[in-house]
């Protein structure tokens, strides 16, 4: 199987527009999001992932904490509408907007990893043939990337309490996005 190489989003640079349907109706889009400070995009593996269930339930309980810091949140996956709706309902995500239909090409362009399905998980849900691995992106209100974390496995994800604490520091100190250097100087001959 051949898949396009991963490209990386660059801090302080505009992120490409991403527009996805939301469970329950409407659309979430990078281009039309209007947070006071940041958008927090949490990419989850899909309905089949029991770790995602726990992780997103925790985030659901912190939506108002993020809002108090001027940060809108959305969870997205490559699941289809039916699976995304089942995740929102079964995982009791009452505050967290859940978007679906993230294309694998768009996921790769964002630096996300793709895995192949291996049958039913411990939750008893069949993995899709291909699905996206977790990622977390913090995008400034101006549409530029501030922070990104991508993973190849479902384990050891960034803790939301840590992100909230980091936001407090970032906001109070006007801390700049880091990791913006895209080229290195060549060594003198």
Write a structural description.
- With 189 residues, the chain is α/β, with parallel strands linked by helices.
- It has a single domain, classed as Glutaredoxin.
- It is built from 5 helices and 9 strands.
- Strands 5-4-3-8-9 form a 5-stranded mixed beta sheet. Strands 1-2 form a two-stranded antiparallel ribbon. The chain has a two-stranded antiparallel ribbon with strand order 6-7.
- The longest helix is centred in the C-terminal third of the chain and has 14 residues.
- The mean pLDDT is 93.
Summed up:
This protein is of the alpha/beta class.
In the CATH scheme, what's the topology name?
Glutaredoxin
Query: What's the overall average pLDDT, rounded?
Result: 93
Which structural class is indicated by helix and strand composition?
alpha/beta
Helix content: 10-25%
**Highest-level CATH class:** Alpha Beta
Characteristics:
Glutaredoxin; 5-stranded mixed sheet; 24% helix; alpha/beta; 5 helices; 189 residues; 9 strands; two-stranded antiparallel sheet
């Amino acid at each position: 199987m051949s898949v396009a190489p991963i490209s990386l989003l660059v801090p302080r640079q505009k992120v490409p527009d991403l527009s996805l349907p939301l469970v329950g109706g409407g659309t979430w889009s990078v281009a039309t999001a209007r947070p006071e400070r940041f958008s927090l995009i949490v990419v989850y593996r899909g309905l089949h992932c029991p770790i995602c269930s726990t992780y997103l339930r925790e985030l659901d309980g912190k939506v108002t904490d993020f809002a108090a810091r001027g940060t809108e949140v959305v969870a997205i996956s490559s699941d289809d509408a039916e699976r995304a709706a089942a995740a929102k309902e079964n995982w009791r995500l009452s505050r967290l907007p859940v978007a679906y239909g993230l294309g694998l090409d768009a996921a790769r362009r964002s630096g996300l990893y793709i895995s192949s399905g291996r049958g039913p998980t411990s939750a008893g849900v069949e993995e899709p043939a291909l699905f996206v691995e977790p990622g977390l992106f913090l995008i400034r209100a101006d549409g530029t990337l501030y922070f990104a974390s991508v993973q190849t496995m479902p384990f050891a994800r960034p803790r939301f309490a840590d992100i909230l604490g980091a936001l407090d520091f970032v906001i109070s100190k006007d801390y700049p996005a880091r990791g913006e250097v895209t080229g290195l100087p060549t060594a003198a001959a």
